């Protein structure tokens, strides 16, 4: 079957020239705003090194998972961005999801780590499938989309197009009447409610709530749990509201959240919700309540303006989640959080 073509965008919306959040990083560094030219304009592509050979358009060096022993290059050292983009359909489509169980409510998930410059986002998305497999019996049912210099050869990058394809892959696998799909997005957020999508100098589209809604609708996924871990992420809720949907965000629409930066392993929301609360309960509403209390105590301790995480659910989703929880074992072993292997990416706030 001929792979679909991902079109590289030539223009990035100039409306995104407003800076993304610095508040998440501010606890660890004196955060600098993201330079407007890194958000709202097309970035120049590095020249091909003379000694670099073009691999086939369907793969990048090392994509077969073989380790060369050399340190992976930073994003500007990629031989060809065209090869990276042409590799994406194969990387997404080769994720073999475990089939759904007939007559049973199963949980599937997609994780999206948007910013390649801070390892906290990758750490959370790498932990997600381990948590869901160990606690909720969802082994083999997660697709990871990660922007990172350590994973771009073997893991699909986090882009709007790859999110569309990943959710379509899930939608083709699940029982759309029964199964639940969790989308966990983690990155920086802007005051005008865009999620930062950055992979080196690639001129990628930033992600909006409308994009997320469209991706779910196109995949014909009915039962949705959407978690947005970013500053100002409460602003995503209005567009995503739907009777079959639960929405959890790390902050109010006009507030920052905390905990990213080059010396962090996990954001405050990721720690409170993902690594702690979901290690104690399978109830997403309960996990949110626990996480909100933990974050409030940390913010009070450090005299930070409260982020006020947000929760919204449609009238139909809780009954489906209860049916899913009824299939889980009475107890499950907690899954220890460990940061992803490999050198940490540079933190945005340290620059």
Number of helical stretches of at least 4 residues: 9
Extended strand count: 8
The appropriate CATH architecture is 3-Layer(aba) Sandwich
**Oligomeric state, counting identical vs distinct chains:** single chain
Q: What is the overall shape?
A: globular
> Can you give the mean pLDDT?
80
Q: Largest sheet, if any?
A: 6 strands, mixed
How many angstroms separate the termini? 45 Å
Proportion in β-strands: 5-15%
The CATH topology is what?
Rossmann fold
Rounded to an integer in angstroms, the radius of gyration calculated over CA atoms is: 19 Å
What does this structure look like?
By secondary structure, the protein is α/β, with parallel strands linked by helices. The chain has one domain (14-44, 55-60, 74-350): 3-Layer(aba) Sandwich (Rossmann fold). Helices cover 28% and strands 11% of the residues. It is built from 9 helices and 8 strands. Strands 2-1-3-6-7-8 form a 6-stranded mixed β-sheet, with helices on both faces. Strands 4-5 form a two-stranded antiparallel sheet. Strand 1 (107-113), helix 3 and strand 2 form a beta-alpha-beta unit. The chain is globular and about 45 Å long. The termini are far apart. The relative contact order is 0.17. Mean pLDDT is 80; it is low at 1-18, 26-77 and 342-351.
List the helices and strands and how they pair.
Blueprint: H1 36-40, H2 81-93, E1 107-113, H3 119-136, E2 142-146, H4 160-173, E3 180-186, E4 194-195, E5 207-208, H5 209-218, E6 223-229, H6 237-240, E7 245-249, H7 268-276, H8 284-301, E8 310-313, H9 317-325
Parallel strand pairs: 1-2, 1-3, 3-6, 6-7
Antiparallel strand pairs: 4-5, 7-8
Helix pairs in contact: 2-4, 4-5, 7-8
